[in-house]
Amino acid sequence: MRLPRGVQPTEAGEILLARARLFRREMRAARGDLQALRGPEQGTLRLGSFPTASASLLAEGLKIVHQRWPAIEIQVRSALRPQLIDMLHTGKVELALMWSYSWTEATEQSLSLVPVATDRTVLLVAADSPLGKVVSLPALRDLRWIIRHDQYPASEVLSRSCEAASFAPRVVYGASDYQELQAMVAAGVGIAMVPELATSHHRPDVRILSFSPADRIPAHSITIASLARRQYTPAMYAMSQAIHDAARTIVPGRWA
């Protein structure tokens, strides 16, 4: 159908497009099934991940894969959650490390999610902070806060947690990444609420504190996602196993 500023598919065209997308997904799944017939010592895997997991969980998982199956080639693409879902649907990646909170929008039924670990939320303070190892969120109401920019989920964890504790956080700095965030915490600019995986390579001039269980600070779940109808290839199995093994080391007691 022609419009003043372009072309829009008719209703029949939309139906054909939807079927074409489904056909493409089925063909990608079929290719994956054929690859599964190959030996586990070879193959290529395209993997999606998000930055926090890439710098910790995935890095350790890749070391395991390279040691056990050196002939498997892993190609990694880092992105935010919506882009990872799109990459799975368009076949740009076969697997993706993803996160979700209790309020996160549910993924489509076309995805299969395998739990990996629960990543709790912790508090970062300067090394000379007088705070003890376990803190209560209401006791922090008068302190200054540092966040990742607003579009990052850790910022929403802070706002939701503080709202539940009946106060609004006084945010004084928005950092572009966790390295910058840690530097500002170390300099005494403020304190920060972050996922524990983000502290796997923390600076010596910051301390990691735990929140009181009574605060019920949200944690996020980490999963391995794939298309629901796709059979795992040997390379996919190898990477999944390596990520689970890495989780047992990095987040002991909270792996799935």
Order of helices and strands: EEHEHEHEEEEEHEHEEEH
Rg is 21 Å
Helix content: 25-40%
Per DSSP, what share of the residues sits in E-state strands of 2 or more residues?
25-35%
Given the structure, what is the number of helices? 6
Low-confidence stretches: none
Strand order in the largest sheet = 4-3-5-13-6
Structural class: alpha/beta
Through-space gap between termini: 51 Å
Average residue pLDDT: 86
Which outline best applies? globular
Number of strands: 13
| Biggest sheet overview | 5 strands, mixed
Q: How are the SSEs placed, and which strands pair?
A:
Elements: E1 2-3, E2 6-7, H1 11-35, E3 44-49, H2 51-68, E4 73-78, H3 81-89, E5 95-100, E6 111-119, E7 121-126, E8 134-135, E9 144-148, H4 153-164, E10 170-175, H5 178-186, E11 192-195, E12 206-211, E13 220-227, H6 234-250
Parallel strand pairs: 3-4, 3-5, 8-12, 9-10
Antiparallel strand pairs: 1-2, 5-13, 6-13, 7-11, 7-12
Helix pairs in contact: 2-6
Note down, in words, how this protein is organized.
By secondary structure, the protein is α/β, with parallel strands linked by helices. The protein contains 6 helices and 13 strands. The protein has a 5-stranded mixed beta sheet with strand order 4-3-5-13-6, sandwiched between helices. β1 (2-3) and β2 form a beta hairpin. α2 (51-68) packs across α6 (234-250). The longest helix has 25 residues, at 11-35.
